[in-house]
Amino acid sequence: MLKRSVIFAHRWLGVALCLFFLLWFPSGIGMMYWDFPGVEAADRLARSPALDPSTIRLSPAEAYALSGLSQPPSQVRLNTFAGRPLYRFRADSGASLVYADTGARQTGVMNGLADRIASSWVGQPAGAARRETLDDADQWTVQRSFRVDQTLLKYSWPNGEQVYVSPASGEVVQYTTAASRLGAYLGPIPHWIYFTPLRKHQLAWDRLITWSSGIGTIAALLGLVVGLWMYSPAKAYRYEGAPARIPYRGQKRWHMVFGLLFGLGAVTWAFSGMLSMDPFPSLRQRPRADIPRALRSRLELTAFAARDPREALAQLPALSVKELELTAVAGEPVYLATLERGETRIVPVSGPARQEFDRQSIIHLIDSASQPGGLADARVIDRYDAYYLDRHKQRPLPVILARLNDAEHSRFYIDPKTARVVGSYSSRTWMSRWLYHGLHSLDFPWLYDYRPLWDIVVITFMLGGTALCVTSLILAWRVLGSYLWSG
Questions:
Q1: Is beta strand 242-244 parallel, antiparallel or unpaired with respect to 321-329?
Q2: What single DSSP character describes residue 298?
Q3: What are the extents of the domains in the chain?
Q4: Which residues contact 338 (CB under 8 A, 6 or more apart)?
Q5: What is the helix (H) or strand (E) element at residue 173, kind and residue range?
Q6: Distance (Å, rounded) from C-alpha 136 to C-alpha 151?
Q7: What is the DSSP string of 401-455?
Q8: pLDDT in tens, 65-109
């Protein structure tokens, strides 16, 4: 009776969810190589002109006095906007944009300026593009992060490039090409079920993904139980007149074979996919905030009077500087200059430019901030490890690995070129690291570091899972057909 109940439950859960699994497995291959289109800070810097010292007429303090902010800024950046130098102030009370050439505040963009911004992004005339105003999300702006911008201006060029400009901020918030959209349809969109009519309804989408992957985990687990239950090592069954270990023929036989081979992977993959939706908020743990805070001192704009941005840029005469960030590390006010290809240079208020902060000073800061436990270990690593890794090899190396002597075994990865925490891990986040990323991406160090071995293993698993889903879909169609035809 129990066996029949399990088989019944697996059959009907499979009927209900086979299409979901058929979306997830093949698109998993696409996810290995294509991301959802997006605009990162590095993209904006790469497409913006270099800072011209001759156009910067206001000091940081003078610009802040015109910002309208009621609180001291916690972040100050100087870069370009529409070809002009612009201070970007951020404080707890809000943000403000002040032009460094005139002191005027940037509060929004008209269509003509938006046209120039979009045109500059792709290097094509705005007149060649089709411009439309979006009051609702489309396929490429369905994430929650775009909704703060509400109305967007969308520019589409004949070669397939699309640029989305926010009239509120004047920023390019999304950029797609024909190739990036195709890659998204092969990977992220079907894998995340990112179809616009559903995805723009955040709560409904969240519930669908969470429940479908959760129930899918149960369906796959029941299928694995059935397969092991029915499998006979002693060849107690007969198949085409010969002893057999599997009692089925045709698609059922193939379904059981694929289930025995890939069923356990289907269980762990569906379960780890559910974890990506953070279904257990009570288990959510935030990393320690004291270490990142310790690496940045309080920002005092008056400390930069001794060397204004023009003089800081003069320290890097042969380099194309796209942005200056005003910050303070270990009490030392510095300009952190970002160059054309994303490299950085440090320009102190006093002294020559250099490439990185003193590593021992950074370690000392972390040791002081982590008391009373202090540091268990601190060293420089020049390759990724089990908790700091990147398939695209874009995360910075070398980094300082600081392991804390606390109950959570916290570890922080600090880039000595920027004195920023670029990665962290603690025993409180083991579920995310191993049950989600480990089981879903198979990014285990003994496999992930060896490519194309990792690609071969993952693709083999995805193809096996796809075959399992195809046989499931065929069987589901037969089950539904028998009920429909009998009715």
A1: unpaired
A2: P
A3: 361-425
A4: 45, 321, 322, 323, 324, 325, 344
A5: strand 172-176
A6: 7
A7: EEEE-STT--EEEEETTTTEEEEEE-GGGHIIIIIIIIHHH---HHHHTSTTHHH
A8: 999 998 899 999 999 998 899 999 998 878 899 999 999 998 878
> Please, which pLDDT band fits residue 283 given cuts at 50, 70 and 90?
low
To 10 degrees, what angle do helices 2-31 and 178-186 make?
Answer: 160
List the structure tokens of 29: 């291959």
Structure token digits, residue 43: 């993209």
Give pLDDT, residue 281: 72
CA–CA gap between residue 423 and residue 400 (Å, rounded): 10
Q: pLDDT digits over 387-408, tens only?
A: 999 988 889 999 999 999 988 8
Q: How confident is the model at residue 119 (pLDDT cuts 50, 70, 90)?
A: very high
- Helix crossing, 453-486 with 2-31: angle to 10°? 130
First and final CA of the chain: distance in angstroms? 27
User: What angle is formed at CA 195 by the lines to CA 194 and CA 199, rounded to 5 degrees?
Assistant: 65
Give dist(CA 78, CA 322) in Å, integer: 9
CB contact set of 456 (below 8 Å; sequence gap of 6+): none
Residue 20: CB atoms within 10 A of its CB come to: 20
b/e map of 318-334 (b: 16 or more CB within 10 Å)?
eeebbbbbbbbbbebbb
Q: Cβ contacts of residue 315 below 8 Å, gap of 6+? A: 347, 352, 353
| Own/partner long-range contacts of 1-6 (Cβ < 8 Å, ≥24 apart) | 3/226, 3/229, 6/222, 6/225, 6/226, 6/229
Name the residue type at position 37: P
